[in-house]
Amino acid sequence: MKLKERAKQALQGKVRWHALQMIYAVEYKQAYANVLVDEFLAQSPLNEADNRLLVQLLYGVLQRRYTLDFYLQPFIAGRKVEPWVESLLRMSIFQKVYLDRIPDHAIVAEAVDIAKLNGHRALGNFVNGVLRNFFRTPLRSLADLTDTTERLSIQYSIQPWIVDALLAQFSQAEVERLLESLLQTPFVSARVKGTPADREQVMQDLKAEGYQVSASELSPVGIRVLSGNIVESAAFSQGQLTIQDESSQLVAPLGQLHGNERVLDACSAPGGKATHIASLLPGGELTALDISERKLQKVHDNLARMDLLDHVQLFASDASKFTPSKDGSSQAFYDRIYLDAPCSGLGLMRRKPDIKYTKTPADVTALAKVQDRLLDHMVTLLKPGGYLVYSTCTLTREENEARVAYVLEQYPKMEKVEIQADEVLKPEVLTEAGDIRVWPQQFGTDGFYIARLRKKPLEVNN
Ligand SMILES: C[S@@+](CC[C@H](N)C(=O)[O-])C[C@H]1O[C@@H](n2cnc3c(N)ncnc32)[C@H](O)[C@@H]1O
C-alpha cells in the first residue's frame, strides 16, 4: 500500500485509516495482527473509545474474511480491484453487517475519503458506487450453500480442511460452537509470579491503577485483562507479572517440580513457560533453548525483568541435536524436560486469524516429523524416573495424541503418567487418556494440548 503524504496528514486522527493499514498489512504483507496492535497501542494518537473500535475492526475483518468476500463478491465481480481497496471494502461492509450504531452514510463517507486521499477521485467514485449498491441490496444467504464443509468454511471464515479436521473429532454442533468462539475479539491474559495469594494482591494493585481485571477460572495464578494496556502497569515493569495465555499457564506445574531439579525447556521462546518453570525452581537449574537466537533474547529479557536469571542458562541451539555434556555425547541428564513443540498453532486462530487462511495439511505433516525428531532426542536426555511434559498450542490429533502414541510405541522405557483431576481447577479439560485438551470455546482462551510422560525408573527395567 503506497502511503501518500497528504493522505497520511489528512487521515492521521482517523481510526478507520489506521485500522485499514493494519488489515492490509496482515492480509497482503504477512504481518501479525497481535504484533501490530501492541505496537500501535503503545503510542496511539487515538482516544480510548477509538482504540477499542480499531481493535474491533481489525480482528472483526480479519476473522471474517471468507464471509465478507462471499457478500462482496457479486458487487465487484469482473472488476480489477487493488488489494488495499479490497481491504477497504471488506472493512466497510463489516461495519454495515456486524456493527450497529454506525450509519450507512458515515461508513460510505469515511471509505470514499480514504479512497480519494490514498488513491484518486475515480477510486472514490468506485468505492462509493460499490458500497451504495451493497447497502441497498439484501444480504446474500449462506443457506444456499448445501455442502456442510463449504457452508461452515464460509460462515466461519476458515479453510475447509480445518473444518473437516474438527468434524472428525466433534459433532457438527460442537464444531460450530468452536468456530463461532473464534470470531470473538481476543483478550489479553497475564500470569502472576508467585502464589494465588500474590495474585490477589497484584489484582488489587492493578485495580487501584485503573485496570479492569478478573481472576482466571483455569489457572490459579492467571489474570484476565478486561481493559487497559497491562504492559504499562507498575506490576509488569516490576516483574510481578508476564503476558501468557491462561491455558499455557497449566504446563509448568505439571512437571511435578520440587524446586531442586535439573530442568530443560527445549523450545523456550518467548519464555512464557521458561519464566514460570524458573519461578518454581528456587534450588534447581533450568536450561532454556531455542533455535532462534533473536527469539532467545526475548526469553532472556523476560527472565531478567522478572528477576529469574540467576539459575538459568540460555543456549541458541537446535534442541533435536543439543548435548549438555562437554564431550558432545548425548546422555541422560535432566530430571524434567518440557517440550513445548513448534506446531501449526491452530489453537491460536482467534488471536492470529491469518492462521485460518494460511496453514496447510502439508504443514501439519511436516511439523509432526519435526516433533518426532525433537521427542526422539528428548528421550535420550531424560534421566530414568524423569518426566517429559509435551505440549502444543494446536488442535490436530496428528500433532498431539499421535505424537505421544509414537513415543510410547517407539520407546518401551517411556510410559504415560496421567494428569489427575486434583491437578487442575477445571476437570473438563482432562481427556479420557489423562491428557489436557483446552478447546478455544471452553473458556475463551487459546486451544492447548498437554501430555505427561515418564522414563521408567531403572529398577523397573531390571
Ligand atoms: C510454541 S513456541 C514455544 C513457546 C514457549 N515455550 C513459551 O512458552 O513462550 C516454539 C518455539 O520453538 C522454537 N523451535 C523450533 N524448532 C526448534 C528446534 N529444533 N530447536 C529448538 N527450538 C525450536 C521456535 O523458534 C519457537 O520459539
Task: Characterise the protein shown here.
With 462 residues, the protein is of the alpha/beta class. It folds into four domains: 5-140, Orthogonal Bundle (N-utilizing Substance Protein B Homolog, Chain A); 143-182; 188-243, 2-Layer Sandwich (Alpha-Beta Plaits), CATH 3.30.70; 246-455, Vaccinia Virus protein VP39 (Rossmann fold, 3-Layer(aba) Sandwich), CATH 3.40.50.150. It contains 20 helices and twelve strands. The strands form two sheets. Strands 5, 6, 7, 8, 9, 10, 11 and 12 form an eight-stranded mixed β-sheet that branches. The protein has a four-stranded antiparallel β-sheet with strand order 2-3-1-4. Helix 2 packs parallel to helix 4 (48-63). The mean pLDDT is 94. Bound molecules: S-adenosylmethionine.
Q: Can you summarize this structure?
A:
This protein is an alpha/beta fold and 462 residues long. It contains 20 helices and twelve strands. Helices cover 46% and strands 14% of the residues.
List the helices and strands and how they pair.
Layout: H1 5-10, H2 15-28, H3 33-42, H4 48-63, H5 65-76, H6 83-98, H7 104-118, H8 121-135, H9 148-155, H10 160-167, H11 172-181, E1 188-192, H12 196-208, E2 212-215, E3 222-227, H13 234-237, E4 241-243, E5 262-265, H14 272-279, E6 285-290, H15 293-305, E7 312-316, E8 334-340, H16 355-358, H17 361-381, E9 382-392, H18 401-410, E10 414-416, E11 436-438, H19 440-443, E12 448-455, H20 458-461
Helix pairs in contact: 2-4, 2-6, 4-6, 5-6, 6-7, 6-8, 7-8, 9-10
The structure holds S-adenosylmethionine.
Residues 248, 266-273, 289-292, 295, 318-320, 340, 342 line the site of S-adenosylmethionine.
